[in-house]
Amino acid sequence: MKNVRLIRHGESAANAGEPTRDHASIPLTAKGLEQARIVAQSITSAPGLILASPFLRAQATALATTALYPDAAFETWPIHEFTYLAPARCVDTTLVQRRGWVDDYWQRSDPAFSDGEGAESFIDLVTRVRAFLKRLAEHSASDIVVFSHGQVMNTVRWLLEKRPQVIDGEAMLDWREYEIANHIPNCQGFSLSRHTDGRGWALGH
């Protein structure tokens, strides 16, 4: 049996309403660091593998757990947050300032649309998360802890619960509704399990 625990990063400067330079280098707040420490303490046995997104806030959250279990394997995988707004125009902006751009993106409802250099399309996100699930299934470790981001984690759940056959505008809007309804708080998450007989992933709490 393979068991995977997925955890959203701790509170970041952006979550706290502060302006940020870019998506990848957003730091944790003091509250986020404390949340990371509490999560690490909740892991009562050494994982076979600890994974983190390359984004700073996920790496910093994982650090508390890697410090507690220094002999556990640690790897960085491309499970970073969905970057659907072009990073260049988001420099030194807050979540409130980006709200209009966010609304415009989702109203467009075009899964192939890219906002500019460094931005992903919705299809890119789904492809990346599917590749993550495949890589997880193929990895030899049986107990895995993953530090990632809310929208990526909700894409995992959405794919497993909804099992969309086509990634079109309707699927994109369904994902958006699902993500809003199932917001994942900082340092919260859910688990996955998979039998070795290949029956697929099962979602836990």
Automatic annotation (TrEMBL):
Record GO cellular component, one term: cytoplasm
Entry keyword annotation includes Isomerase: yes
Keywords: Glycolysis, Isomerase
PROSITE patterns noted in UniProt: PG_MUTASE (PS00175)
SMART domains in alphabetical order: PGAM
Tagged with keyword Isomerase: yes
Gene3D superfamilies, per the entry: Phosphoglycerate mutase-like
Protein name: Histidine phosphatase family protein
Species assigned in the record: Pseudomonas juntendi
